[in-house]
Amino acid sequence: MCDDHSLDDMIEYRLRSARVSRRTFGAMTIVAGLLSALRPVARAAEVQEAEVDIKTPDGTADAYFVHPAGGASPGVLMWPDVFGLRPAFRQMGRRLAQSGYAVLVVNPFYRSHRAPTAPEHPDFNDPATRSALMTLMGSLTPTTVMTDATAFVSWIDAQPSVDRKRKMATTGYCMGGPFTMRTAAAFPDRVGAGASFHGGHLVTDAPDSPHLLIPKMKAHYLFAIAENDDQREPETKSVLRAAFARAHLPAEIEVYTGTMHGWCPPDSQVYNHDQAEKAWSRMLVLFKGALA
What we know:
The chain is of the alpha/beta class and about 290 residues long. The protein is built from ten helices and eight strands.
């Protein structure tokens, strides 16, 4: 889950683990550090990138758009975690574009302010920092997600670098995991693949729980679940499997051994390189098969 538990995980990891020192973590937050952490893309496409502004009913969203320099490619809408649009997610978007996709990485907190929306080196023990992050996350609702998804999908489809004859995908990290499900359900004929990495609140008791939207989807899915999230909510994976089976939709749902919530972005203090690379590779397999 992307909530107080998530921040507690990061605090605990920083205090008890020497694997990622403060000095090393600081280095990983710059682009050079990110490049060294991520495996190079084989036969990487040359890409073009730009910071863009997208009009929505609620204002102007800032985002990062990157795509192969030649031709038109399948579109991907990437929802970041609670720390928002930042160098790590720009680099992840660029890496995905090098594999042949037109990627829009958004700032979901644009209603409050433009990126960056979190400190580069957040002090999780600082109550003000924790409160600010949770306030940002709390400002997003199913309604704001749908408003934004509509604007973002429309913007993606208006770009000449996007191949509208092929399905698009959506990916989400932490709080972004359920956003992918809302997007896939709202645009079933457009979204052919979804990937949630350590997504939170995928299955709840609320009447608007994301898992209840699965019958409206046509997307094939990947759920990469953190081990400690699974320990807290072991029933989530079973509910998801059953719901996708009833909908007759393929879904790869796996708990990644040894991971803590937030392990995929390379600037995370709980980053697990080997498991993050495995999850990334499974996403690429999903996209290759589903974005026809």
